[in-house]
Amino acid sequence: MEQTKYLVVGSSHAALEAVTAIRMHDPEGSLTLLTRDPHLPYSPTVLPYVVSGRSAPDGIFLRDEKFFADNHVALKRGTALKFLHAERNAAELADGSEIAYEKILLATGASPAIPPIPGIDQVSYHVLRTLDDATKLGAAIKRSKQAVVLGAGLVGMHAAENLVKVGAGVTVVEMAKQLTDGYFDPVAAQLIEKAFTDNGARILTGSRVVKLAPSAIGVTLTLENGTTLEADLLLVATGVRPNMDYLAGSRVEQDKGILVSDSMQTSVANVWSAGDCAQARGFFTDAKVMNAILPDATEQGRIAGMAMAGDPGLKAYPGGVPLNTYHFFGRHAISVGSSKVPEGAEVVTRFDEASGRYLKVIFNEGRLLGIYGVNEFFDGGVMCQLILRRVDLSPVKERFVANPLLVGRELMSKLWR
């Protein structure tokens, strides 16, 4: 049986940060990176740009073969983890072989969540989670004349924009009352929706598909209200679910994701988890939450790697803060922090309907809880740090609301010294 000191399962941001953190403290311990993807590591966040053609598939890789060779990492591509035998420190692979480890990181990400719509197993549809998904969807979009996108999250809306731009008729179907629900508030969502409808898209919020069936051009969709839609391209973008089927029967505790401590350790001493499959403490609550965003995956991976290598510089995970950015039709939207307004909190908004500029800021006792904007310029990373550090903005609140980009950077230039 093959043996390794460190086994990292996954190949995106969390996994790569963990590899770097391990090698910073332990340059010699044997290290294996295992990924089910046949390609070199890439970020799922770049896939919409592969679909649109803005990014070439062979130009998106986060690391090359030389990186792994230089860091003495055994890279195993196209090999999935089938079962984790935590009781005997062994990973069983899809091909039946096993790797024995001393310490393991589960950074296995997530897969598209396919809704249980009657007839979905009888029709062809696309998803967008891997590079192969992106290249297939990009080719299909060029041929599409009439498309339906199920789900109005960021993945679905990116694809809908690409379809609009190639001249396809596009209908977006979303069960929630607004698009980008969970990312932006109703005012921001309405601005985003207007940009799509102004460009010819049809948005059906508060709508549910109850049946799918093959049709002459591709797919017939029946909505709950009896409306039918025809599509030659169907994209299912209704969310994701963490990849953790390989934990069946193991002692690793799970909920919505793999439950982890503030050092990313699971309920099993030599097993860690990070990224989109990990469920860690939220910054605004002691409850453990899923926060599947790139900055958090990077931070969690770094912490996990340091913990695995025994790095004395390790600091506890501060908790997850939501941060999402979205570019659409030459405009942009960004949300950072909590959208909940606790009792006694202050909400400041400004909205210029003519220009489509919108800003919403939530303060609690002078400290930033959340900030949301459409066509407003501010640094999401800086806003996140102001929240994490609980910086009192009372002395500069009016200036901050007037120009969050400038004032935020002024504050952080002092705090980071």
From TrEMBL:
UniProt keyword Protein transport, yes or no? no
Output the InterPro entries linked to this UniProt entry. FAD-bd_OxRdtase, FAD/NAD-bd_sf, FAD/NAD-binding_dom, PadH
The alphabetical list of record keywords is: FAD, Flavoprotein
Any single GO molecular-function term of the entry would be: oxidoreductase activity
The UniProt record lists the FAD/NAD(P)-binding domain at 5-281
The record's listing under Pfam families reads: Pyr_redox_2
Name any cofactors this protein relies on: FAD
Could you tell me the superkingdom of the organism this chain comes from? Bacteria
NCBIfam families for the chain? PhenlGlyoxDHPadH
Q: Which family does it belong to?
A: Belongs to the FAD-dependent oxidoreductase family.
**PANTHER family (UniProt xref):** NITRITE REDUCTASE [NAD(P)H], PYRIDINE NUCLEOTIDE-DISULFIDE OXIDOREDUCTASE DOMAIN-CONTAINING
Question: What is the protein's name according to its record?
Answer: Phenylglyoxylate:acceptor oxidoreductase
Query: What organism is recorded for this protein?
Result: Sulfuritalea hydrogenivorans sk43H
Q: What is the lineage of its organism?
A: Bacteria, Pseudomonadati, Pseudomonadota, Betaproteobacteria, Nitrosomonadales
Gene name per UniProt: padH
